[in-house]
Write a structure and sequence with these properties.
The chain is of the alpha+beta class. The protein is 56% helix and 28% strand.
Length: 154
C-alpha cells in the first residue's frame, strides 16, 4: 500500500481514502472535481495592511531626512533629524521580516474556500471543505495520484 497523503483528518492511499470521518475505496470514485468559493476580501485587505505596515517606517525615516535637509535648523538639530530618520528606516528591516512571515502564512491559507467533490456510487459527495490553500492542493494532488495509480492497476 502506498500512502499519498496523511494528516489527522485525511488519509489517501493506493487502496482508499478517509476524509471527514468516512472511508471510500478508490473503485467507488466515478469522478472527482474541485470548486472555489468567493474571494474573502478581508484576507486580501489584511495582506494590504501588512504591506503598508512594512513601508511606513521607511516613509517616516525618509520624511525625517527630508525635513532635516529642508528646514533651516542648527547643525545639531539637522544631525539629530537625519540620524533619527535613518534609525527609523533601519527599524523597518526586522519589522519587515516578522510581517513577511504573516504574509507567507496568509498566502498558505488562501483567500477563498476550496472544496473537493466526488461522484461516488451515483451521488455527489463533498469530501473536503477548507480555506487552507496549501493543504487543499496537497490533498487534491494526492487523490489524483491515487486514482491514476488505481486506473493503471486495473
Amino acid at each position: 500500500m502506498i500512502t499519498y497523503y496523511r494528516d489527522p483528518d485525511v488519509l489517501v492511499t493506493s487502496t482508499g481514502v478517509r476524509m471527514s470521518g468516512r472511508e471510500y475505496r478508490l473503485s467507488d470514485f466515478a469522478q472527482v472535481w474541485h470548486r472555489q468559493g468567493r474571494r474573502s476580501w478581508s484576507a486580501v485587505a489584511g495582506r494590504g495592511v501588512l504591506g503598508i505596515a512594512m513601508i511606513v517606517p521607511l516613509v517616516i525615516g525618509a520624511v525625517g531626512v527630508l525635513v532635516a535637509l529642508v528646514i533651516n535648523a542648527s547643525t545639531a538639530a539637522t544631525v539629530a533629524l537625519i540620524g533619527g530618520g535613518i534609525l527609523i528606516g533601519l527599524a523597518a528591516a526586522p519589522l519587515s521580516d516578522i510581517l513577511l512571515e504573516f504574509v507567507d502564512r496568509s498566502y498558505d491559507k488562501g483567500s477563498r474556500r476550496r472544496e473537493i467533490w466526488a461522484r461516488i456510487r451515483g451521488s455527489e459527495v463533498l469530501l473536503l471543505d477548507t480555506d487552507n490553500a496549501q493543504r487543499f492542493g496537497q490533498i487534491y494532488r494526492a487523490l489524483q495520484r491515487a486514482l491514476d495509480h488505481d486506473a493503471l492497476a486495473h
